[in-house]
Amino acid sequence: MIPGKERPDYGMDAPPVIRNLLVAGFGSIVLSFLVAQFSWRAAPYVAIFLLWMGPWFILSGILMILSSRFGKYREREHLVDLLDLDGSEHVLDVGCGRGLILNEVASRLSSGKAVGIDIWQASDLSGNSPEVTLENARREGVEDRVEVLSADVRELPFEDASFDCITSSMCMHNISSSEERAKALTEIMRVLKPGGRFAILDFRNSKEYAEQLTKLGAIDVKRSGLRFKMYPPSRIVTGTKPRIDEGDET
Ligand SMILES: C[S@@+](CC[C@H](N)C(=O)[O-])C[C@H]1O[C@@H](n2cnc3c(N)ncnc32)[C@H](O)[C@@H]1O
Q1: What is the pLDDT of residues 12-50, one digit of tens each?
Q2: Which of 32, 66, 144, 243 gets the most CB atoms within 10 Å of its CB?
Q3: How confident is the model over 149-158, as pLDDT tens digits?
Q4: What is the C-alpha separation between 142 and 102, in angstroms, rounded?
Q5: Which residue lies with its CA nearest to atom 23 of ligand 1?
């Protein structure tokens, strides 16, 4: 970020989930005291169960807030480090939201370009909109290297082999069926150039992504161990689309 400029704001991930966890947490604690007043035989057990569950829900909600406020800023640097950019790349960030990864990528480009696509679901990210993403790019001083489009990852509006690298953070799990996620991964492989690299971060389905991408012909596919900077803890799947001659060998 340029010193003296307004700070970018990358929003709160999954705000309804955080709200539900906090409501369920405080609700369970209140309910446990109410249940404890009843004289049924099971009442003390139910009350103790609720008293245990409440703090777990609250803790999960607080960890999600901390992840959005601090953890994801640290994890984005690691994710982009994995791409080993030289600055000239044309990079796509799928499900870019308010530009967390997109702008980090753009900050490492010189002649390259960072393109973000999203369907801007407010339930996945607070204040989610292309205007906010571009404003964050401006605040980071990278707006000249950033482009934002409205598009679904399952139907990318790009020619085959358009990008040198593709990133994605906490997007793919929002697609509920594995068939639809496979469609998205097929699109990612389609628009990646031969020799291009991908890094996909998510808290669920990473094994499925690694297997599917391997089936689609990706090479050097690696699935990281659990990473705890974000909550829920996440994994990163990396790999490369083979060049034509490499693809023939495998
Ligand atoms: C939790 S947010 C993460 C945003 C950003 N990548 C980040 O790490 O801050 C998930 C994003 O994925 C987007 N998304 C969900 N389903 C999508 C789809 N099918 N195609 C494109 N974007 C999608 C949502 O609109 C949201 O912006």
Answers
A1: 999 999 999 999 999 999 999 999 888 888 889 999 999
A2: 32
A3: 999 999 999 9
A4: 10
A5: 95
Give the domain CATH number at 98.
3.40.50.150
Could you tell me if the CB of 153 is within 6 A of ligand 1? yes
Is there a single domain that holds both residue 40 and residue 145? Answer: no
Residue span of the structural domain in which 63 resides: 15-68
Residue 1 lies in a domain: no
* Residue 196 and residue 128 share a domain: yes
Going from the C-alpha of 94 to that of each of 54, 66, 156, 177, the distances in angstroms are 35, 23, 9, 18
* 51: in domain: yes
Ligand 1, closest atom to CA 14? 1
Among 40-44, 143-147, 183-187, 218-222, where is mean pLDDT lowest?
40-44
Q: What share of the chain is helix, strand, coil (3-state, %, to 5)?
A: 45, 20, 35
Residue 10 near ligand 1, beta carbon < 6 Å: yes
